[in-house]
Amino acid sequence: MAVITISRQFGAGGRTLGRMIAKEMDYVYLDEVIINEIAKKVNVSKDWVKSMERNVGGTLSKLFAIMLNKDYMSRLIGDTRGYLDENVYMDVLKEIIVESAEKDNVIIMGRGGQYILADHENAFHLHLVSDMAHRITFMQQFYKLNEAKAEQAVTIGEKKRAAFFAKFGKADYDSPHLYHLVLNMSKLSLEDAKDIVCLLVKKKAS
């Protein structure tokens, strides 16, 4: 079949839609799985990987890289435990996404999959956009946040998204030219979006 990558503006519903598509098409949804695989490959905790993902490209991540460099960590906890910084994270992330794509019938949630698998012949790259008001409403509905917290989450999420893609040397992540399909979730229900994606992916794979 295919490998689906999902990129989205923060709060546009990427994870929710991704799970719906995976269920409909019997695909493996890779989100937490990628975190687990990175943790195993570099021999660190899942919490360390999650912390790295939250802060890639940010000031906190750079501070950790200076304070907790590999030599210092080896002296502190020994060589039996692994080490993770931004560069190690990005290298291992790319490796795992490429390996996952070879298995086919997978959905890769975020993490630059549209760039890493840009030339993958079976990849279907999906991007979700939505206006700010809709994203705030989505965060309120699906994550039980009040309006102020929802707006803050979207704003911070977009800043982190920009910092993450800066590590790829990319700033065009919202460009429609990167994707097979761009959906405006302000205009579509999740159910309709799921049906559109499933139809096109099946057609591409046939």
Give a short summary of the structure.
Helices cover 58% and strands 12% of the residues.
| Order of neighbouring strands in the sheet with most strands | 2-3-1-4-5
Work out the radius of gyration.
18 Å
* Annotated CATH architecture: 3-Layer(aba) Sandwich
Low-confidence stretches: 58-80
CATH topology: Rossmann fold
Total domains, how many?
A: 1
Secondary-structure blueprint of this entry?
Elements: E1 3-8, H1 14-25, E2 28-30, H2 32-42, H3 46-55, H4 59-67, H5 70-77, H6 86-103, E3 106-109, H7 113-116, E4 123-129, H8 132-143, H9 147-166, E5 181-184, H10 190-205
Helix pairs in contact: 1-10, 2-3, 2-6, 8-9
Structure characterization notes:
The protein is built from 10 helices and 5 strands, in the order E-H-E-H-H-H-H-H-E-H-E-H-H-E-H. With 206 residues, the protein is of the alpha/beta class. The chain has a single domain, classed as P-loop containing nucleotide triphosphate hydrolases (Rossmann fold), CATH 3.40.50. Strands 2-3-1-4-5 form a 5-stranded parallel beta sheet, with helices on both faces. The N and C termini lie close together (8 Å).
